Structure prediction request, 677 residues.
Amino acid sequence: MVTTSTPLTRSMQRRQSRMLKLLDSERFLASAMLLPAVAYIVLLVGIPLVTAILFSFSDATMASPEIDGLNFDTFITVLNDPVFRRSLGNSIGFTVISQASMVVLGNVLALALMKNFPGKWFVRLLILLPWATPIAIGAIGWLWIYDSVYSPIDWIFRQVGLLGIQGDHVGLISRAPNMYWLGQYGPFSVILVQIWRMLPMSTVILMAGLSSIPQDVKDAAEVDGVGFWRTYFQVTVPLIRPIILVAFLFGVIFTFTDMTIIHVLTRGGSDNSTQVLASYAYYKGIDGGNLSQGAAIAVFMLPVLLGLAMILLRIARRSEVR
Amino acid sequence: MAVVETVKLSKHFNDVKAVDGIDITIQEGEFLVLLGPSGSGKTTLMRMIAGLEKPTGGTIKIGDRVVNDLPPRLRNVAMVFQSYALYPHMSVYNNIAFSLRPLGMTRQQIDDKVHWAARMFSIDHLLSRKPRQLSGGQRQRVALARAIVREPDVFLLDEPLSNLDAKLRAMARDELKQFQRQLGVTTIYVTHDQVEAMGMGDRVAVMSNGRMHQLGTPQVLYQSPADTFVATFLGTPPMNLVETDSCLLGFRPENFLPEAAHPDTPHPLVIDFHLTRVEFLGSDRLLYGTIEGADGPVKVVGDLPSVIDYTPEPGTICPMMVDRRHLSYFDKSTGQRIAPTPFALRGLRDPAGTA
Prediction:
């Protein structure tokens, strides 16, 4: 069959080739592909951020959400609020303690999971589960574990004789004392959940780091005969230091800004012993309707996180082995 | 310095027999080369001697000790890796000193040793550099210095020259051999490069598929290969193999010469050679063509040195001769070397003189 190019097919070809040219143009493609991400950031991150900053300099409330003038009055009020100061201390304390422990535990776990042992896939699955679970669901699980009366931890403690006398109960209710995990041990319990929450991610990041160390270098250290600890602290850790920092940075950002765990477990605790900035901002601004104070509390997290991110990224870049 | 001995040493990875019953004894101060194509098990064998792989069966002895269950650090072996495996975050000094640190030496003793090793490889001016600031050749020297600084009993080298460019490699070969002589340390050297093996090895072990085909000096390997694998693995171009009625006949290209160029050889084997192409390589000319084997024409190659002022004409039948002393005979089914046997070939000029 002989193909003849009629005016119609020719114009179709022309249109097609214009289309192809457009799809080949990097300029067009770059903007087209970036547009959704830019729109997303502007609408869901940029505008709320600017609004929050504006609110924090105003005296807006739910009842009168207008911004009439900008001043530092709200910040002064917030800084004088003892609960705010407690929340700030808790936020920093919980984050530092949980993430420091997490880096240590994550390293141990990552090292263990790099070895071959029977049932490894199952252990890996178990360790990854917390990450795949929605935070709220996980936190509800922990709420039950920490239950003031029926806590399974208390039950185990009682069984091994650490808590009261076994069998001392009326009906099903034990007369033995309880630990009240979310009461006096509230901060400890919250930190434990934060570690549990971030451990899978840091383990996976650290495993990626460990497997990036060339096998030859590990073999060389083994033949050099320097032993496990010296190899670990003088070869492995220096080589994965940037990756440890990345894991730590992510953990800090997630933990510092998290309010779900506090909200589900303690709502800050009756004496605000587990109140953190994120939860306090929510209770003040949304539950309490004081938009400006809620915004001001939330804005306090911004410089801390920005500064931290900059410092850590700089250290990471410097210690990168090129 | 020690004798290394393996007895029936084997390593299986699931169903794959990476090393399949190797018996080998490496003498004190000897330079032994493990030569074979990739996948032949030579690196696995070396890694077992180093203690980086656990053998499936057999024993390894270093000196008087059976070291099967000893970790690498108690074997007093040193290894140089193909990638050099320098610690990238440490200075050259610390790379070399690293293995000395757990030995409880004083700072001064360590310093003396590092400088001794660095001077030996002329890298004492590089001690404060990081590996990434070094050239390939310098890295290789650092890796060698790091290996000898502990004065190991056994020196293991895993293709240490293959990351160097060709020019540097020839020089490094010569230097490495000299250092080994100076130190007199038992050395096992893994390579797939027959030039390195022939040039450096006191003895060479040829391996393939986890088995050792032949162990001997480079001369023995070259002149009387134990089987057809060794015959065709060594030499460029490899040994010609021609099937006759009774055996496989092997002869090296450089021994396969135009009769006209060597009229005075006693008892030569003269064969009709259908010359198809002549390749000029500077010092040599390669003659490509066929001779009549038992099952039709067989491709063979002749290597004619350029000092011989004679070039046969492509497209003609050229009488070629081999000195009978240079013939190798192999069994047709097993490929093993056998004693000279009578044979018949169609293209022979002098059938009466066979064998």
Residues 8 and 306 of chain B are 47 Å apart (CA to CA). Residues 351-355 of chain B have pLDDT under 50 and may be disordered.
